[in-house]
Amino acid sequence: MSLLELTTFLLLLASIFSIVNLRVLKLPQTIGLMVLAIVLSLTVMVLGLIWPQFLSMVTTLTAQFDFSVLLIDVMLPFLLFAGAISVNVHELLKDKVTVLLLASFGVVFSTFMVGSATYWFISQPFLNLNHLGLTYVDCLLFGALIAPTDPIAVLAMVKKMNLSSVTETRIAGESLFNDGIGVVLFLTLLNVKVEGIENITAQSVGTLFLTEVVGGVALGLLIGYLGLKLVKYIENQHIELEVLITLSLVLIISILASYLHFSGPLGVVVMGLFLNQNIDTDKDKIGLQRAMGDYVYKFWHLLDETLNAILFILIGLEIIPILQNFSLSYLMISILTIINVVLARWIGVLIPIKSLSIKKEFEKNTALIITWGGLRGGLSIALALNLPDQIGSGKELILILTYMVVLFTILVQGLTLKKIVK
Predict the structure, then answer these.
(1) Which of 96, 190, 255, 331 has the most crowded CB, counting CB atoms within 10 A?
(2) DSSP assignments along 350-417, one per residue
(3) Please, are residues 306 and 82 in contact by the beta-carbon 8 Å criterion?
């Protein structure tokens, strides 16, 4: 199948799924699309039992493209930028310490708690999974890829919860930044795995982590500053030009970050926040206005919805070969892992909130809302698919655990979040 045919097929399916959800299921977009993606996977598997060649054709189709590269290098930058320009940047700047502490501590703590517990689960005789040969670093890689939440799913849910602007901004900001930090931590641990832990020092790991984070933020600030100058220069007079500028800047950051080994996700988020602000105009007449026109925000909202729909279809197709080998042991460890992931998320946000509550005000049960609102999505699955083949047969288990956690957070947590908030 050519790229044009594949794109046409995905867009057609995305349109059909969106219509079915809108008219029949009437669920929030993210949840509805996930439900339909599951139906798609099950339908393909059932048809595969009747016509094995059909299943073979679908698995061959999914093998033709690299899902992890498609999401991380192409889709993720656009999705993160769309999320960043929808956040109230002024509220975020007032509460930047809270957001950064929640994102950084939460991701690091969750990575090590989930990774350590997973390593312990595998060693238990009743699960009979020792033969997979997963090492502690492999389990930490799983912890790192499952720690970041899906900012698109989180933002879509939070906007409908009628929370205060402060709490909404904290949740949205934490979700945006923990994606960038999660990817950096995953790549750092991946380097440890590939190079061999005996060849890695604490200094080299620390240097790599700081280079990715500081470099990504600096790149985002630089490109964001230049972009803001361009946007101010055209003064919202040419809306199509503003769209072209933002599109090109997102791609430029992704390419430069790849060459310089900086964090592209962090760079895109910082640039989005930098552009999403007010600028000084003639104070006697207008006062302050947004740097970008409303058309830009509508365009990115449209792109966000389109990419999100395609993303869940890809997840449904990509997971079909993995689910064929599902077993009782996989089900048992999946249940244990889901409980562990939710618990790690809760402790990871509760500690910073308790530490900061001495000087800052938090709404009642903020930690619970942030925990239950921590939906996982395509990023986690893409990172799992990006794991090196040297992990061996254990990679299949990590993929299944990742998919089961994503399913639980979107379907169970997503559907009950409104009741939890109430």
Answers:
(1) 190
(2) HHHHHHHTTTS---TTHHHHHHHT----HHHHHHHHTS-GGGTTHHHHHHHHHHHHHHIIIIIIHHHH
(3) no
Residues 6+ apart with CB under 8 A from 105: 348, 351, 352
Quick one: which H or E segment has residue 52?
A: helix 52-63
Residue 80 parent element (H or E): helix 76-84
CA 82 – CA 265 distance, rounded (Å): 12
Q: For residues 404 and 407, give the distance between their C-alpha atoms in angstroms, rounded to a whole number.
A: 5
Neighbouring-strand partners of residue 289: 279
Domain boundaries in the chain? 3-421
Which residues fall within 8 angstroms of residue 243, CB to CB, at 6 or more apart? Answer: 295, 296, 299
Q: How many Å apart are CA 150 and CA 406, to the nearest integer?
A: 10
Dump strand ranges (E) for 140-292: 278-280, 288-290
Mapped onto helix, strand or coil, the DSSP state of residue 34 is helix
The rounded distance, in Å, linking the Cα atoms of 251 and 255 is 6
Q: Which of 67, 142, 5, 73 is nearest to 312 (CA)?
A: 67
Task: Calculate the alpha carbon distances from 287 to 242, 281, 344 in Å.
Answer: 21, 6, 46
Those residues whose C-beta lies under 8 Å from the C-beta of residue 10, and which sit 6 or more positions away, are 310, 313, 314
CATH of domain 3-421: 1.20.1530.20
Measured CA to CA in angstroms, residue 313 lies from 19, 37, 422 at distances of 14, 5, 31
- Could you say which DSSP state residue 292 is in? S
Q: Average pLDDT, stretch 368-384? A: 87
**What one-character DSSP code corresponds to residue 289?**
E
What are 50-106's pLDDT values in tens digits? 888 888 888 887 777 677 777 788 888 998 898 888 887 888 888 888 999 999 999
